[in-house]
Amino acid sequence: MLFFSSYLLFSLLPPLISAATLTLTLSVPPHIPALPPSTTAILTTHGQRIKAPVTRRNTFVFRNLTSPEDPASLDAAAGTTTTTATISYLLDIACRDYDFMSYGVDVRSDGVVQVYRVSRGGIVTGEKVTVGEEPVEVRVLRSREYYEARAGFSPLDLLKNPMILIAVVGLAFVVGMPYLMDSMDPEMKKEFEEQQKKSILSGGASTANPLQNFDMAGWMAAKTSGKNGETSEEGSGRDVRRRG
Amino acid sequence: MRLCAPILLPIVALLYTSLCHAIFADEAYQIDSHHALLGLPQAHTTFFHRPSAASKASLLYTLSEKLVLGAINPKDGTVIWRQRLADSAQNYSTPGLLRAGEGGDTLASAAGGKVHAWDATDGRLVWEWDGGAGTNVVDVTPSAEGGKYVLVISEGESEGSSFVIRNLAADTGEVLWESSDSSGDAPYSIVSSQDRIFTVSLHSALLKGLRIKVTELAPSNGKLIGQSISLSSDSDLTSEASILHIGANSGQAFLVWTDKAFKTLKINRIGTKGIASFNVPFSNGEAAENIIVHAPRSPTAHPHFLVLYQGADSHWAEVFHFGTDTKKAYDLPRLGGKGAFSVSSQGPDVYFTRHTAFENILMSSTGPSILSRWDVRPKSHGGMVDPQDISHAASEVISRGGSTYAVRSALTLPSGEWELIRNGNPYWVRHEGLTGAVAAAFVELPKEENLADELAAESHRSVIAAYVHRVKRHVRDLQHFPYWAQALPARVLGSFLGDKTGPPDQSLRRDNFGFHKIVIVATEHGRLAGLDTGTQGSVVWDVQAVNLQAGEKWQVLSIEAEQNTALVRGKGGEFVRVKSDSGAIVQYQPGDLIKSLKTSVPVLDASGEKLLIPVNDDGSIGAIPKAEFEIGTTIVTEAEDNVVRGWALWRGPKPTLVWQFTPASGEIVKTVTARPSHDPVASIGKALGDRNVLYKYLNPNILLITALGTEASTATFYILDSASGAIIHSATHLGVDTTLPIVSTISENWFAYSLFSETSSFSQGQSEIDQQKWKGYQMVMSELYESPQPNDRGSLETTSNYSSISPTFAEEDGTYDTPHVLSQTFLIPAPISSISVTTTLQGITTRSLLCVLPDTKALISISRAFLDPRRPVGRDATAAEMEEGLFKYSPVIEFEPKWTLSHKRELMSISEIVTSPSLLESTSLVFAFGDIDLFLTRVSPIGAFDLLGKGFGKLQLVLTVVALAVGTTVVAPFVRKKQIDGTWKA
């Protein structure tokens, strides 16, 4: 990544050469296959844009990064300031096949190069890591998918439609019910029929308007006889109670 | 209303997905086409070469005049990889160098002060050496001994030395040694022969001419060995161009030069003093006008070389055997035409191939006998390629044992075609002449029968005449019937059994959807080409429209479509009218008459015809052609003094200056953009979610002016009314990098621009109170409305009189009535080098922004819905806003890969985009062009809603109908039986 050991000496010595040249090497994770030859890493800052094409080792090498002039040397006579000047670059990797994370690169006048993660707009979101001898590994966000798959016709998709599902279940009931009834043993069948009669949703005559066979006389009798009538006239009494 | 939200959400989600309308996998490479070009190959950098010692087949490599390095598959002419050695914006003067070491797997290229080594197989960088600004690499040579080193000779690095020689490790690029020369001589070349290294430099002789100085260096450390040898060449060598050849890479290094008049040929073995001299032969009394030396590049090949003499209209050659006594081996007879030779070697054998307009002749270097000979078809590739004269050729000869040979040659023609011929048969052709495109336009195909015209003719006649005319027309139409009936079964079957409708329609006829058009491209070489959008952008014609001086570039102002023809207007006032379907030049008018003008602007006259108005350097208007103009026609001119002027035509031919616009001090006007000529507006207002209307500010006269302050790093965007000159709106951005692309577009009632800026804002965070720097690429979208309130037309509503001369003074008290401007800024991940807008027939379809991303070499389409400045900020969208398609603002827009129109294709150096409506409202045709590539596609910004896609299965539809019919027929008797039974039971 950064072969800056020799430049470290520079930072200890008074800066004879105002702009030392530094090298920054980036590598991609080993599981990424060979990137297309058009892949380029780009350092951008105001007024400067440096490009590095991908090498055959799947790395990007920025040679001759110039560090800014050290402000300390300018007012060394005054001996006041201890700050170092910094050039901050945005690091983007333009690639046809992958999206890479965005980074920022600081090149300081003392020969230190720092790499850190940034969000769009160059806002620092990660820790600043000083680059050592090893290449800096840049992270891949995702591979780029350019195409949209066409939603093809499939009978299974059609069956997954809820409307179709409801219709199918309903149909199964209608068709299957008589067979189910036939296969029941007589006692169970009787019990079932009994239950159906009790239920409001019981089929046949009971689905007809209950008002049609409303036992007016019974109702009147129940009204007068109170609880006794209710128990004796079970069927119609139930109807009445519901109505009430 | 709140209840609506859950229902609306899926609709919005659906809308959102429809915004990200991507290319379907089965449509990619079908609806789009791409000419991946390199530029005209150069003679000294074009060769066949094996990418590595292990590979069996060789590739064709070239470094073009556009400094694009590329590897071509010789089988089909496709690009395997390419790299551009210069930025397109950068001016380059160097022709570049490309060298390949025999047996190595890398190529070394040099351009300007940089040397690159590339992997020959996949085109990835191996190493880079950068000499820094001011350096010029003169020569690069892979060392002869196993290709372990690369020698670089460069000049201009430091003031003390005139040139520096470096020895670089071929695999890492590490500098092993360097040796500088301070003699003040001009470096010419570096030669590696066997295990010796020589530098060749030119020393200005005392009186006149140049002396060739050869110095030997030790390969281990670059130290000088012995004295440098000075050849007495000063009597005939006057310029570098007279050195014909330097056998840098061959086993025997030798130097060939001639005098200015091409009278004698001098040959020297490098490292010795002896000079062999030969007289240049005359042929039929014709003197040579040019001499070219062809020698093998391989160090193992025989040191035989061929000298080609080109006369005015014939050529002849001699073959020499180089050795201790260099001698002429044999002569080659004179043939008419220009002709080209190429050299190829296999082991020690050297072959020369002669290419003329009619034949290819293969010869061995040992004797004059012809090994093989093939006739060449005089015209190939549909008559497009005419090898009348060949600029240069590269070839590869393979001996198949005995007397059979296979020869393939890549011929570069002056028209810009690059053709591969294999044993005399044309194999493929690449249209490298289409590089350097400067203008392009979509042109309709000529109508063959115009039904509308015929019907119009009928309506103007008497009833009987019209009836006779109609019957005649119908009878005439009948002649197409057999063909139509014949094709019908195939067509029906084809449409049911999938998308294969037979071979694509080769004929130049209009289609029902308006997708089939001709794209006319004008190049800086003065050529015009027609590309057929119906057949994957194939070149249907290619003509030389204007003849240019060497080094001159054709500047084209506009290409206008006319009935069956196209009019191409040059900046110098010249124009060419060509037939749009054949490229035949109908009319040519040179522009020499008006020399001093800076530019000319097209202006429409009263009848709608475009006329060119010359504009002088100072922004004033030259002589106006005689035509009827509408009173008040405004002409806007840009001048070198940075002032934009508006001129109006009143009665009389003299235009009057109406207004002047000067940007703020320190700013220069970069671009002046008007709304596109085809910019239909479907609705004058924007319907809001609550059924109110926000009225758009639709002014046909608005101009977008970009002004840059390079000193202060500012960019200001002005919206100007071109009738009155009033500034309607302006926005200034600080901290803008004016060296990076700043692009803008204007359409309908909105404008957008993109720039890179670095601004400081003080953040109030706990830890960092100091300033935070925002840095990045931005896209700004602004919309103009008549009023901020819905259902309000501002002051326009109540005004009965309106003046376009002073539209901003609507009120009597002089208050300005400016439109309400809504702006929003988005951070985008990459720079945009060009921006354009889709155009559809009626303008109903939401427009998309088409942007060229130079970094990823892509063309993307961004839906305007993402860039809507009305997106709610800091809160979620309300149900009403969701109904409009608005969603919460987020400052960052990432370019989704699915927006990429060019998908996996890589568009090199694209600089401009032209769009054209198709007959379908949903679809716009897009053509992108530039210095290198051409790309053609069509885009449906909100999906192809009026076209059945390939996913629509006609067969399935028919099968479903059939299944239903069968089911009904089968079930019908049962149902009838049940009904009858039911009736009886009841």
Automatic annotation (TrEMBL), chain A:
Residues 222-244 are annotated as: Disordered. Residues 35-166 form the ER membrane protein complex subunit 7 beta-sandwich domain. Residues 1-19 form the signal peptide. The keyword Cytoplasm does not apply. Residues 235-244 have a biased composition (Basic and acidic residues). InterPro entries: Beta_sandwich_EMC7 (IPR019008), EMC7 (IPR039163). It is a single-pass membrane protein. It is found in: Membrane. This is ER membrane protein complex subunit 7 beta-sandwich domain-containing protein. It comes from Alectoria fallacina. The lineage of its organism: Eukaryota, Fungi, Dikarya, Ascomycota, Pezizomycotina.
Automatic annotation (TrEMBL), chain B:
It is a single-pass type I membrane protein. Residues 788-809 are annotated as: Disordered. Residues 788-807 have a biased composition (Polar residues). It is found in: Endoplasmic reticulum membrane. Residues 747-984 form the ER membrane protein complex subunit 1 C-terminal domain. SUPFAM superfamilies: Quinoprotein alcohol dehydrogenase-like (SSF50998). The chain crosses the membrane at residues 955-975. Residues 1-22 form the signal peptide. It comes from Alectoria fallacina. Component of the ER membrane protein complex (EMC). The keyword Ribonucleoprotein does not apply. It comes from the Eukaryota. Keywords: Endoplasmic reticulum, Glycoprotein, Membrane, Signal, Transmembrane, Transmembrane helix. GO terms for cellular component: EMC complex. Residues 22-432 form the EMC1 first beta-propeller domain. Belongs to the EMC1 family. This is ER membrane protein complex subunit 1. The keyword Transmembrane helix applies. InterPro entries: Beta-prop_EMC1_1st (IPR058545), EMC1 (IPR026895), EMC1_C (IPR011678), Quinoprotein_ADH-like_sf (IPR011047), WD40/YVTN_repeat-like_dom_sf (IPR015943). GO terms for biological process: protein folding in endoplasmic reticulum.
